[in-house]
Amino acid sequence: MARPTIRDISKLTGLSTYTISQALRGAEGVSDDSRARVLAAANDIGYIPNRAAQDLRRTNRDSVGLITASTSNSYYLDLIAGIQSMVQSLAWTVIIADVAVDGHYDASQEDRTVRRLIEARVAGVISTLTLRKENTDLLSKWDIPVVFVDSAPPAAAHHLPSVTTDNYRASMVVGEHLTGHGYKSWLFLAYPAIWSTRVEREHGLRDAASAAGATLTVVESANDASSASKALAAHLDASGALPDVLIAGNNPMLLGALDQFRLRGLHIPRDLAVVGYDEFAWSNLIQPPLTLLNERSGEIGQEAARTLSEIIFAQDESERLGLGSTPIYRPDHQKQVAAELIVRQSCGCLTPGESRHQIITLSVPDG
Known about the structure:
Rossmann fold, 6-stranded parallel sheet, single chain, elongated
């Protein structure tokens, strides 16, 4: 696919390439009307100026972009470390951009981030959030490959690479473990569905609860600890009763729940059990130690970086042979990493003083 150029904007607007260049740079001497026509035409055809360099050769690009969706979630720390450990041997730089600062997704920030990464002529992008179709189309127009991690590709571009956990099966395992305790009242403290993992996690928990004859109540919150605490407080005040178990959808939800339980003087697991998603480094140091689903985000990060580098190297070879630089995606570029349920005391399994924990590993299905 041919990349848009200043000459294309000139044909659309009737303005000289010099005037267009000045307008795109924000220089003086260009009328407001001309500048508006240039910017509108550039946006319509997906033109992105190269602010990093005029040389667009792929061999000069040695950086990749990582789009995160709330770096306040400690899940991303291991993910980033996994990506860094893979690309450092290639002498690549990772450019990190957050499109959900403090857990609040901003669509305009996503748009700006994608454009800035294209301007920087990154070799590829890893995204932890399902990007809007307009942005995957824009990356495709500029032959920049993208790999999704901990999120599904857009429905309209389902062929794009991804490295994920089977969140439905993982949630079924969580639910089956809760069923073993005999819990009948489950509360799922969840983040918004803009994070695609939410849908499959809720789906798995609902099916597990139905099979167990349990009820599942979903309380949704913005994706930060403070909002989670307030949402949970409002629900508990309205219901007047505690669930048997609270299932925290991710680390911010877990932190918000623990804060609310502290404020109410509740004891875990005596007053209610707690399980959560996403293992973190000090989860066994909290009292009681927490039962969590470990998605192995470090391994997910490594696999995503490995997949992206494979696609980029294939692009380089294709371009060297004069066959074009369009990314080639294969079915095996969609991968899953096995998860494991780490059972500690917060779910009610172990008695105080025991330091051991149980690990229930989920296998990755063939194919």
